[in-house]
Amino acid sequence: MVDENGALLAGVSIAKSFGPVEVLHDVDLSLQAGHVHALIGENGAGKSTLMKVLCGYQGASAGTLMLDGQPVVFHDSADAERHGVAMIHQEFNLAEQLSVVANIFLGHEMKSGVFLDSQGMRARAQQLLAEP
């Protein structure tokens, strides 16, 4: 389900303060399914802070998050992820040495007992990469 503007995830009048310093001021953002979105701005403009609020890493000081047209509060990033909202952090080089398969499953590895299910992850990665 989406809201009246077609947004699956939206931030409405989002503000974020760290002590007396307000770093986000009344920000509105709507993310639609099937679209590529880019958030562009200078260093210190609040891009990362907004993403952290949208993905449950930090709470907003004011404003509302909407998911599927309904208000939602993410208590942490795991809660957001359970709702299908996740963030790929901008530190690309953290997993540079890993394979494509390992990067796809980073933090969500498939296991067979106590061991990684490399064959299962490889097969699932092939399925995911074949999707349009």
CATH fold name of the largest domain, please? Rossmann fold
Average pLDDT score = 87
Radius of gyration: 17 Å
Main beta sheet, described?
4 strands, antiparallel
CATH homolog superfamily of the largest domain: P-loop containing nucleotide triphosphate hydrolases
CATH class of the largest domain: Alpha Beta
Q: Helix amount, in percent?
A: 10-25%
* Number of distinct beta strands: 6
Strand order of the largest sheet: 2-1-3-4
Total number of domains: 2
Quaternary structure: single chain
Basic shape: elongated
The fraction of residues in strands falls at 25-35%
- Return residue spans where pLDDT drops below 50 for at least 5 consecutive residues: none
What is the terminal-to-terminal distance? 21 Å
Q: In DSSP terms, counting alpha (H) and pi (I) runs of 4 or more, how many helices?
A: 4
The CATH architecture of the largest domain can be given as 3-Layer(aba) Sandwich
What's the helix-strand series?
A: EEHEEHHEEH
Structural class: alpha+beta
Structural overview:
This protein has helices at residues 47-54, 77-82, 100-104, 118-130; strands at 7-18, 21-32, 62-67, 70-72, 111-112, 115-116. With 132 residues, the protein is an alpha+beta fold. The model has no long low-confidence stretch (mean pLDDT 87).
